[in-house]
Amino acid sequence: MRRVVTGHDENGKSVVVSDGPIPRSREFTSLPGWVSRLPWATDPGEPVSRTGEDPTPKVTSLLPAPGGTRFIVLTFPPDTEMADPAFDPVAFDREQRADSPGIAELMEPDGMHTTPTVDYGIVLQGEIVLELDDGHCTRLSAGDIVIQNGTRHAWRNRSDQPVTMAFVLVGAERDG
Description:
Pfam families: Cupin_2. It comes from Streptomyces himalayensis subsp. aureolus. InterPro entries: Cupin_2, OryJ/VirC-like, RmlC-like_jellyroll, RmlC_Cupin_sf. By secondary structure, this protein is mainly beta. The protein has a single domain, classed as Jelly Rolls, CATH 2.60.120.10. The chain has a six-stranded antiparallel beta sheet, with no helix packed on it. The longest helix has 11 residues.
């Protein structure tokens, strides 16, 4: 996956300041096919970067503070990969905590989780199921979008192909 970042030169002219692979990208060894990428992030009240300096190396939590953002691209392997006897959930949890601090700690054993964010999700490739805490499941396909309003949910890849989704998480205050 390619990331193009713009900024300004010394004369204030718009320029491409970087063009290449997403530097903060990880292919999990504990779950082949699971790929996590963090193309960009902002902190609350942060001004627009005129230089296009990469903020991702300084990110210590994928859970943004209220007013902050995280742009995350995930590839989910088929759920059958987790049913494989070779799958090690402890190793996967360890990789999740290293790669996705802030969010990984909120994950329940079955993948359900709740974050204090408004998430804009776009299915880029494949088909995935959004499961809510009442058991309701909604199938999403490439091009579909979902607005996740801080509700408890999980993502289920019931197909036999990987699914790639892009998410923009916007940190929000809980309403109660």
